[in-house]
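Please go through the protein record below and see whether the fold suits the sequence. Record follows.
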Amino acid sequence: MPYILAIESSCDDTSAAIIENNKILANVIANQKMHENFGGVVPELASRAHQQNIIPVVDTALKIAKIKKEQLDAIAFTRGPGLLGSLLVGSSFAKSFSLALNIPLIEVDHLEAHILSHFIKDDNQQKVPEFPFLCLLVSGGHTQIVLMQSHFEMEIIGKTIDDAAGEAFDKAAKIMSIPYPGGPLIDKFSKEGNPYAFKFNEPNIPGLNFSFSGLKTSILYFLRDELKKDAEFIEKNKFDLCASIQEVIVSILMKKLIKASQQTGINQIAIAGGVSANSGLRKALTDAALKYNWHAFIPKFEYSTDNAAMIAIAAYYKYLNNDFASQSATPYARSIF
């Protein structure tokens, strides 16, 4: 019955979680609001904020879990991918704490953790995916279809060849002067709009790979031309624009996911990553599950965006396998799986 402390610091959220077996006892997140003023995350400011937040966040997590640090059996941390300065804060703290308590250290890949968040146990226990299953992993930096054979046996069978879906949401928002973070606001505004008001071309990419750079360009040129005719075009049509942009991005994602299911014959389908919080994608997956007889799995909202609970569940399975890290483990900016 191990108690594991998990640290997540890959970008701008400092998070600490305590897990007992596969049940989360605490999951604390400190956000960094200052980046909204810059329209995106400023790496240097993010790493400084992590230094300020990490000790209070860990202390709060221990108090919520009602355990003392001496009861911990292991310390887990996000090794990557992410911002190196931010990752260094989390990894350095985890290494130091591990040495001080003389307990094992566990390194976790951020993307693997997103997928494994489906195995977190809570009071309202939901069914978990059965292996093998497909997971559409969608975030601001990554868009992949991953074939999961076991908790740590995974194969990327489709990925973006340029930009990620989350980046497409954020860049479209920026073009329309929607404040950062733009993706969630597009989702919010889209609920008031017509998703078929405007048509944007979908890329024709072979296989299971994705592309979003052309779509961003299409949106940019469309708005440029319309603004020449009417300087108030975006403001007048904001809801319809958001709904139409969300519709095309979700459509691109779902067509590839459906194709992947048909090619592999797998009907256990999950989504994960920050964009899995998008209401349009969640509804599209639910609708597809009914149409194609899928067993669909959608993470809880608190486990969709960056959080330490997902690091903790990945660490739990690594702990069972005695898969521990050394003090020489260094962060990496890009995914290695």
About this structure: The first strand starts at residue 3 and ends at 8. The chain has a mean pLDDT of 94. The radius of gyration is 20 Å. The chain has ten helices and ten strands.
